[in-house]
Design goal:
The complex is a heterodimer of chains A (284) and B (249). Chain A is mostly helical and 284 residues long. Chain A is built from eleven helices and two strands, in the order ααααββααααααα. Chain A has a two-stranded antiparallel sheet with strand order 1-2. The radius of gyration of chain A is 19 Å and the shape is globular. Chain B has a single domain, classed as P-loop containing nucleotide triphosphate hydrolases (Rossmann fold). Helix content of chain B is 39%, strand content 26%. Chain B has ten helices and ten strands. A six-stranded mixed beta sheet of chain B has the order 6-7-8-3-9-10, with helices on both faces. Chain B has a four-stranded antiparallel beta sheet with strand order 2-1-4-5, with helices on one face. Chain B is globular, with a radius of gyration of 18 Å. At the A-B interface, helix 6 and helix 7 of A face helix 2 and helix 3 of B. The structure holds adenosine-5'-triphosphate (ATP) and magnesium ion. The site of adenosine-5'-triphosphate has 11 residues of chain B, from strand 2 and helix 1.
Chain lengths: 284, 249
C-alpha cells in the first residue's frame, strides 16, 4: 500500500504536468517524460561534472526545465499548431524520441547515480512505521506542488490570465492577452513540474528510459481523472500506483504495469470523459 | 484628420467567398457610426477584419487607426492600441466569475489602481452583475452576458469601441438600457462603430450611418440624411413596419 502511494506520487506529478499542457493547448504531450529526463541529466551534469552545490543546482535545474519547455513550445509546437490532434501527437512523440536520443548520446545508456543528499536507503521513523526519506519527501513535494498550483491559479493575476486563455483563446486575445506567450509559459510551467517528478525519481534509478513508464502511468492517471483536472490527475495517479502495487504483490509481478492500462480501458468504457471531468462544451 | 478609424478599399474573403468587396469609409472621432445592412451583407466580417481576427485578411486595402496602419497586425496589438470589440457571440469566459471577466477586460490597462472604482461604477450601473459577482459567466442569461461583454469591453477604457448587434435577443427593456449605455459611453468621448439590425434605434442614436449590401457599401452619410434617402427608405421602412406590427401578433 505504502509502496503504491510512493509510486503514485511520481505518477501524480507527471499527470499534473500533462494536464497543465492539455488544458491550455489540447495537446497530449508524449514528450513530457523526456523533457523531464533532459532536466534530470542537466542536474546530474552540473552536480557531478561541475560540482555545483545542491542548493544552487536546484534553482538552476528549475530554470533549465522552464527554458526547455518554453523553447520546445516556441520552436516546434507553435509551428505545428495548425496540425490535427493526431498530427500533434506524432509531433510530441517525435520530440520524445529526439530528446531521448540526445540524452543517450551525451550520457550513455548505463545507470547513473544521482549525487543527491538523500539516497533511496535513508529512512525516517514516522510514529509507528518507517518510511524511506525519499518517499516522505516525494509525498510532501507532490502536495506542495498541488497547493502551489491551486494558489497560483486561484489567486494570481497570471493564473487568471492562464485560465482565461485556456477557456477561450480568441476572447483572451480580444482582452489584449499575448496568448502565444501564455502558451509558452504553460509549457515552461509544465516542464518544471515534470522536472520535479524526474528529480524525485532519479535516486531510484537513473538512465535514459527512466521517465517513460512514469509518464505513461501519469498520463493514465490524468485520463482517469478526466485529463483537465489537476486533483483528478493526482487521484488517478495514486489510484493506479496503489492498484498496480497490490496487483504486483498478490497476483502477478509480470502484469503489474499492464494493470494501469487495463484500468484506463475500463474507466474510458464506463465514463468516457473521465471521473473528475465537468461537462465540457468544446468551443470552436 | 479627425477620423478615428478609416478604411480604404478593404476587401475580405473566406477562401473563394468574397464577403467584403471594397469598403471605404471613415469613422469620425467621438461619433457614433451605425453600420446597417441585411443578413449576410458582411457587417460582422468587416468588424472582424478590423480586429485582425481573420487570418491573412484583408486581402487588399488599408485600415487606419488615428492615421496609423493597423492591417496585418495581430489582434492583441490592435486591442493594445485602444480598440475594444464585442463580438456577436459575446465571448465571455464561461467558467470565470463575472468579476474575473471584468478584471480580464482591464488586462491592457496601465493604471490598475483605478480598476476598483471602474468595477464599482459598473456594478452601480448594472445591479444584476453586482448580484452575480462570483457566479460563472456561463450561467448568466443572454442579456446578462451581453451587459457583461459590454462592461468588460469598457474596462480597458478604449478609444474606439466596435459593437456587433448588442441588442440581439434582448427584451425591449434591455434594448433601451443598452442604447442608453451606448449614449453614456459616447459622452465619455469614446468613438463607437455600431452594427445593428434595430435600424430605427440605431439611426436615433447614431451621428453617421453606413449601409452595406452584399459586401459593398451602398450608402453613407449623416444619419438624418439617411432616414430620408429613398434607397434606404425601403430597407428602413421594411423594418419599421415589422416593428410596429410586432405587438399585435
Ligand atoms: N467563417 C466563414 N466562412 C465562410 N464564409 C463566411 C464566414 N463567415 C461569414 N461568411 C460569409 O460572409 C458573408 C458575410 O457574413 P457576415 O457574418 O459578415 O454578415 P453580417 O452582415 O454580419 O450578417 P448578419 O446580420 O446576419 O450578422 C456571408 O455570406 C457569410 O456566409
Ligand atoms: Mg453579423
Amino acid at each position: 500500500m505504502l509502496n503504491g502511494v510512493a509510486a503514485g506520487s511520481g505518477y501524480a506529478l507527471m499527470g499534473i504536468a500533462m494536464v497543465i499542457i492539455y488544458k491550455t493547448s489540447e495537446v497530449v504531450n508524449f514528450a513530457q517524460g523526456e523533457m523531464a529526463l533532459a532536466s534530470v541529466f542537466f542536474t546530474y551534469l552540473i552536480l557531478q561534472n561541475y560540482g555545483i552545490p545542491f542548493v544552487y543546482a536546484m534553482p538552476l535545474a528549475a530554470l533549465f526545465a522552464v527554458f526547455v519547455g518554453c523553447v520546445l513550445e516556441f520552436a516546434v509546437l507553435r509551428r505545428a499548431r495548425r496540425q490535427t490532434t493526431l498530427g500533434m501527437i506524432i509531433v510530441t512523440i517525435g520530440l520524445e524520441m529526439i530528446l531521448m536520443g540526445l540524452v543517450s548520446w551525451k550520457f550513455g545508456a548505463d545507470h547513473k547515480v544521482m549525487p543527491f543528499p538523500i539516497t533511496e536507503f535513508d529512512s525516517i521513523w514516522l510514529g509507528g512505521f518507517y518510511v524511506t526519506t525519499l518517499e516522505a519527501v516525494t509525498f510532501s513535494v507532490v502536495w506542495a506542488v498541488m497547493l502551489g498550483l491551486f494558489v497560483f491559479y486561484r489567486y494570481t493575476r497570471l493564473g487568471l490570465i492562464m485560465k482565461a486563455t485556456q477557456q477561450n483563446r480568441s476572447a483572451a486575445k480580444l482582452m489584449g492577452v499575448r496568448t502565444n506567450r501564455v502558451l509558452m509559459f504553460t509549457w515552461g510551467l509544465s516542464s518544471l513540474v515534470g522536472c520535479i517528478a524526474g528529480l524525485l525519481l532519479a535516486p531510484r534509478s537513473m538512465e535514459p528510459f527512466m521517465m517513460w513508464d512514469p509518464m505513461l502511468k501519469g498520463f493514465a492517471g490524468a485520463v482517469v481523472g478526466g485529463m483537465t483536472s489537476i486533483p483528478g490527475a493526482v487521484f488517478g495517479a495514486y489510484f493506479i500506483g496503489v492498484v498496480e502495487n497490490l496487483f504486483g504483490r498478490y497476483a502477478s509481478m509480470e502484469f503489474k504495469s499492464a494493470v494501469a492500462f487495463a484500468l484506463i480501458v475500463i474507466v474510458l468504457c464506463v465514463k468516457p470523459s473521465g471521473i473528475f471531468s465537468r461537462h465540457y462544451v468544446k468551443k470552436v | 484628420m479627425n477620423a478615428s478609424l478609416e478604411l480604404k478599399d478593404v476587401q475580405t474573403g473566406y477562401g473563394l467567398i468574397q464577403a467584403v468587396r471594397g469598403a471605404s469609409f471613415a469613422v469620425r472621432r467621438g461619433s457614433v457610426t451605425a453600420l446597417l445592412g441585411n443578413n449576410g451583407a458582411g457587417k460582422s466580417t468587416l468588424l472582424k477584419t478590423v480586429m485582425g481576427l481573420i487570418p491573412g485578411q484583408p486581402q487588399k486595402g488599408e485600415i487606419l487607426l488615428d492615421g496609423e496602419r493597423i492591417n496585418g497586425m495581430d489582434t492583441e496589438s490592435i486591442v493594445r492600441l485602444g480598440v475594444s470589440y464585442v463580438p456577436e457571440n459575446r465571448a465571455v469566459f464561461h467558467q470565470l466569475s463575472v468579476q474575473d471577466n471584468l478584471i480580464m477586460g482591464a488586462h491592457v490597462r496601465k493604471d490598475r489602481r483605478a480598476l476598483k472604482t471602474d468595477l464599482e461604477r459598473i456594478y452601480e450601473f448594472f445591479p444584476i452583475l453586482a448580484d452575480r459577482v462570483n457566479q460563472p459567466a456561463g450561467t448568466l442569461s443572454g442579456g446578462e452576458q451581453q451587459m457583461l461583454a459590454i462592461s468588460r469591453a469598457m474596462m480597458s477604457r478604449p478609444r474606439l469601441l466596435l459593437l456587433d448587434e448588442p441588442s440581439l435577443g434582448l427584451s425591449p427593456f434591455l434594448v433601451r438600457k443598452i442604447f442608453h449605455i451606448i449614449r453614456i459611453i459616447r459622452n465619455q468621448g469614446v468613438t463607437i462603430l455600431l452594427v445593428e439590425q434595430n435600424v430605427r434605434k440605431a439611426l436615433a442614436i447614431a451621428d453617421y450611418a453606413l449601409v452595406m449590401e452584399s459586401g459593398r457599401l451602398v450608402s453613407a452619410g449623416p444619419s438624418t440624411d439617411l432616414k430620408n434617402d429613398p434607397r434606404i427608405k425601403d430597407f428602413y421602412l421594411g423594418l419599421n413596419i415589422r416593428e410596429t406590427q410586432e405587438p399585435s401578433c
